[in-house]
Amino acid sequence: MVTTPPAITRAAADEPFTALDERLPPAARVWLGAALAEAAAPAAPAGERRGPPAWESRFAEAGRRCGSEAAADTARVLLLHTAGAGAVTAARLYHRGTADERRAVLLALPGLELAPAEGLPLVEDALRTSDTRLIAAAVGPYAAEHLAPHAWRHAVLKCLCTGVPVAAVAGLAGRARGDAELARMLADHTGESTAAGRPVPVDLYLVQALTAEAEEP
Amino acid sequence: MRIFDPHVHMTSRTTDDYEAMRAAGVRAVVEPSFWLGQPRTSPASFLDYFDALLGWEPYRAAQYGITHHCAIALNPKEANDPRCVPVIDELSHYLVKDHVVAVGEIGYDSQTPAEDTAFAAQLQLAHDHGLPALVHTPHRDKLNGLRRTIDVVRESALPPERVLLDHLNETTAKEAKDSGAWLGFSVYPDTKMDVDRMVAVLKDFGTERVVVNSAADWGRSDPLTTRKVGDAMLRAGFGEDEADQVLWRNPVAFYGLSGRLSLDRGRPDAPYEGNSVLRGEQ
């Protein structure tokens, strides 16, 4: 099957694009190229605009176009980055998105140039859910960089409580190192679990060991 | 026995139900949008509900190895409330989403002019978005409501083979079948259809284009009636292939008209970006 080459976009030069493009079936490659071209197109002036830009529909349909959830995640992140989604767009796509769309917005945060006051409410929303896919996506590099100490510690504890492997927590070693308050929370959680006769997750001991390491000077 | 419940309101059910459904053979469900028992007072309330049907509920279902899709619509009852009607303008944002496999439930409740308008507008939306439509037939004045429903479908852009007429019974099945639409039967403990009547209807009308659902919700209902119908079919002399047709292949074919059914979600070994992050799948 002959496919049209994807339009040259900001994302097209990126490694994630190439990695995704290579593993998509032909029809999905054509779709991705066209979708990224739409995302790269300048937005219509406010007066001429009717409804959200076309690429947002591509963002919605990425799951059924790409075939696998992992491929759809990457495609959606590429769309957000290519469109240079700002705070208003990111928040709208997150708040009125499916769980998959919300996860993509969270995964895209490090590349979106959102101020902490703009991006953190989305991370905090995801951390309030009980959906482990959203929790795992919320504790990425953006949270590592911007989440305040109290919220970050609760995010780590939430991962331990919900079974999200702490390998998903970006920057874990750096932030946990020498964190006495996190160490106390982990010890209390261990006590609570032991009292209830529940197993303590192995990951908890791993984080505990990190907190015991001396802070870098 | 593999079962696809094509109409069940899981939002109103407990995780025990999911567990029992999985044990009974239910592997996939479609949850149509409906009335919550308590009237909504604004479109925002609908949007939160739609978000749950596309977020939390599929996640919950996946914990029990059940694939969850949904249908989005303004339901017939609340189509009569002017505070709710503006949600129709929001539907297009939802009808493009993955895992939305139909517009529904739409149709008639009290057969009012406001219901006429909402029904016709949403059939058009289904056509515009390449989706089939799940159409509720009314509980009161049912046969007349069915005829009015078929007239509206006939006048719409949506061909009848992309329409499922639901909550049918002995009095409405024949005209529904003659219309060319798919036939849906809701099997309840007391009202609508029961298991034995359902088997009798299958004997009369055959198993082509027929689906059976529990339509279980917050009322007296039972999410396992699909399985009970399957067992009753076998006892009554239907073959396993016919039970599979009614309980699996027919709903897959109908909602498959959307091009958006993905029944391989929830595989136990699906890796997440190369690691084992829990994704609510079993």
Which helices and strands, and how do they pair?
The complex is a heterodimer of chains A (217) and B (282).
Chain A: H1 15-23, H2 26-40, H3 55-66, H4 69-83, H5 87-95, H6 99-108, H7 116-128, H8 132-138, H9 141-146, H10 149-162, H11 172-176, H12 180-196, H13 202-212
Helix pairs in contact in A: 1-4, 2-3, 2-4, 3-4, 4-6, 5-6, 6-8, 7-8, 12-13
Chain B: E1 3-5, H1 15-24, E2 26-32, H2 43-54, H3 56-63, E3 67-72, H4 91-95, E4 100-107, H5 113-128, E5 133-136, H6 142-155, E6 163-166, H7 173-178, E7 182-186, H8 195-205, E8 210-213, H9 225-235, H10 240-256
Parallel strand pairs in B: 1-2, 2-3, 3-4, 4-5, 5-6, 6-7, 7-8
Helix pairs in contact in B: 8-9, 9-10
What features would you highlight for this structure?
A: 217 residues, 13 helices, disordered N terminus, B: 282 residues, 39% helix, disordered C terminus
Descriptive notes:
The complex is a heterodimer of chains A (217) and B (282). Chain A is 66% helix and 0% strand. Chain A has 217 residues and is mainly alpha-helical. In chain A, helix 2 packs parallel to helix 4. By secondary structure, chain B is of the alpha/beta class. Chain B is built from 10 helices and 8 strands. Chain B has helices spanning 15-24, 43-54, 56-63, 91-95, 113-128, 142-155, 173-178, 195-205, 225-235, 240-256; strands spanning 3-5, 26-32, 67-72, 100-107, 133-136, 163-166, 182-186, 210-213. Chain B has an 8-stranded parallel beta sheet, sandwiched between helices. In chain B, helix 6 links the parallel strand 5 and strand 6. Chain B is globular, with a radius of gyration of 18 Å. Classes of the chains: A mainly alpha (217), B alpha/beta (282). At the A-B interface, helix 3, helix 4, helix 6 and helix 8 of A face helix 2 and helix 3 of B.
